[in-house]
Structures are given as C-alpha cells and as structure tokens.
Specification:
Length: 330
C-alpha cells in the first residue's frame, strides 16, 4: 500500500458489457475519484455473473467492453489493480473456507437472495445462496479496508464484516480485516422512460460509447413532464428526468434558463432535450476518443487485466498462506 494513501479500496462489478450512463454516474465516476485517495482494486466479477447468467457466450466480450469503458473513464492501471475475478483462483479456495462458517439460515434470509429467487425461480442455484460468501472472500482476500457500497449492497457488506469477526474469533486470529463501509451517494439514474432505473435489460439506457447521433436519438425519446401535453402548456422541471440530467451535464446558466423557461412554456421539450443531448455528447467526447484508441488494441487491454491479476494473485496468495495457517490446514 502506498504510504500517501488512506487505505485500500476493493470493489467488484459484474461484466455487463458496454456501460451506460447509469453505470457511469452510479459507480465508474466514483471508482475514478477514489483513486486519488486510496489504493484501489477493481475486479470484474465473472464468477459472480455465473449465478445469474445462463448463457456465457458473451462473457469474454462483455468483460473486454467493460474494461474498455473503465480505462476510458479514467481508471489508471499503473496504480490501480484492475483484473478478472476468475484469474485469481485463491478466491475460490477462500470462498470454500468461509462457506464452512456461513450459516445457511442467514444466507437464505438475505433480502437480495429472496429477490433473486423471485426473479429466477427456475434457477435457484447453490452459487446464488453463496453469493455473499464469495463477495466476502473477494473483499477479505485483498485485505481491503474500505468498500464503496450503495444502499442495496449494504446488507452484503455487513455480512462480510460479520464473517470476518466469526472467522477471527473461531480461529483465534486477526488475519482477516473487517472492511469499513463507504456509503456512496449513488444517484438513482432513471432510464429514458423516466420511470425505471436505467438498465440495459429494460432497454431504457444510453450507452457511454454510443455515437453522438445514437445518443441524441435516445435523448429525444426521453419522457418529460407527463402533464405537459402541448408546447404552450407550462411544464414542471422538478418532475422531469431531462431536467435532472441537465443539472448534471449543463452549465449553471443553462440550468437556470430551463428551470425558468419550462415553467412559463418559454422553451419546448424538443429544444430542451436537444440542448441536453448536445451537452451530454460534449461531456462524453473525450471518453469516446480514449475508448476508440483502446479498442484498436484489445491485446493491450487484456495485458492490463493480466498484469492486474498478477498483482492481485500476489496479495491473495499471501492472505491464503495466513488463512490456511490460522485454520490449521495441514
Ligand atoms: S422543457 Fe425540459 S424540463 Fe421542461 S418538461 Fe420539457 S424536457 Fe422537461
């Protein structure tokens, strides 16, 4: 760990392929910022993906696309470790060890497990129950002190903390580190439907790597204030998702103008969306330029992931030596 940094951050993200605006505002932007204060380890959790992904045909491509987005967004591989979960087999071993001290009753009571059972009743697999155990293994394997989590992942991190306490108590050791939760203000980014959270599966998303034309087309499809039917109707920007996005991507003068003019029907929704699309495209232009450079050389990107795995394995193996010893494995 470098001495100037506050500690080590770990976070895992499923290989969901090309990232969208919701991923960017909800996670990636924070990943990039955390690098200034912490030593960061970012893991593309392909093993976790197996609990819900039945068709693994696109897993490799999705992993590469995601790595491209992370790099283009500003992940700095010289200092940050970015790697693929399954490339560090020690995580599977630690998962197995931790599973022996994981009460089944507790795992099946976690709200996220119940939710998954509702979502995929045809595929309630063993891995799904052990998801929080694998997540705990991920975090403690790298001795992370800090884990950025949104509200939905908070019970899982609490589970990790409990597992660490149980392990250390049971084996009378201090080998595992209890990670601190770093609550991140994760904005709920709505999709272009203005109702649901932005998600690829709902096809209400805007890809970061989309062309400016595609982006504009998606923005022009965005739902606005539902009570504003005619151009001459005054609108309410407070309930309009387009305005929410203006507040992130437009200048303060433009935000004030939309806020004022929408309420007195001085601006139409078409013009308002076109302005947002223009600002969003301008914001994403440097990202897209960097991404297309990286995309020209997939070998370079895979090399970064390999190098990350090598550095991660080094930490992981040291932890496993200590874990095996603490457990008393012969
Ligand atoms: S003018 Fe803009 S803020 Fe107002 S309802 Fe239309 S899109 Fe929304």
């Amino acid at each position: 760990m470098s001495s100037q940094k506050k500690g080590r951050v770990f976070s895992g993200a499923r290989p969901t392929g090309r990232q969208h605006l919701g991923n960017y505002l909800g996670a990636i932007k924070n990943y990039v910022a955390l690098q200034d204060e912490y030593d960061c380890i970012y893991c593309i959790v392909d093993l976790h993906a197996l609990t819900t992904v039945e068709d693994t045909l696109n897993l490799r491509q999705n992993t590469l696309e995601m790595a491209l987005d992370f790099l283009a967004a500003g992940i700095r591989p010289a200092e940050t470790i970015m790697f693929i979960q399954s490339h560090v087999p020690q995580v599977a071993e630690l998962h197995l060890v931790l599973s022996m001290i994981s009460p089944l009753g507790k795992l099946t009571e976690l709200p996220t497990f119940k939710e998954k059972v509702r979502q995929q009743p045809h595929n309630v697999n063993y891995g799904l129950v052990g998801y929080p155990v694998l997540m705990a293994a991920d975090i403690v394997l790298y001795k992370a002190n800090v884990v950025p989590v949104g509200i939905d992942q908070a019970p899982h991190l609490e589970y990790t903390r409990e597992t660490v306490r149980t392990f250390n108590h049971r084996f009378n050791t201090d080998v595992l580190i209890e990670p601190q939760m770093k609550n991140t203000e994760i904005p709920k980014v709505l999709g272009i439907d203005g109702v649901e959270k932005m998600s690829k599966s709902l096809n209400n998303h805007i890809e970061l790597a989309a062309t400016p034309e595609e982006t504009k087309k998606r923005v022009m499809q965005m739902t606005t204030d539902p009570h504003r039917i005619l151009r001459s109707d005054p609108g309410n920007p407070d309930i309009c998702n387009v305005f929410t996005m203006h507040k992130i991507f437009s200048s303060s003068d433009e935000i004030a103008m939309v806020d004022r003019e929408c309420r007195r029907a001085g601006i139409g929704c078409v013009d308002c969306k076109a302005l947002y699309a223009k600002n969003l495209n301008a914001h994403l232009a440097p990202f897209r330029e960097r991404r297309s450079e990286f995309a020209k050389d997939p070998g370079y990107v895979l090399g970064i992931l390999d190098d990350g795995a090598k550095r991660a394995r080094k930490i992981a193996e040291q932890t496993m030596i200590e874990v095996r010893q603490a457990v008393g494995l012969p």
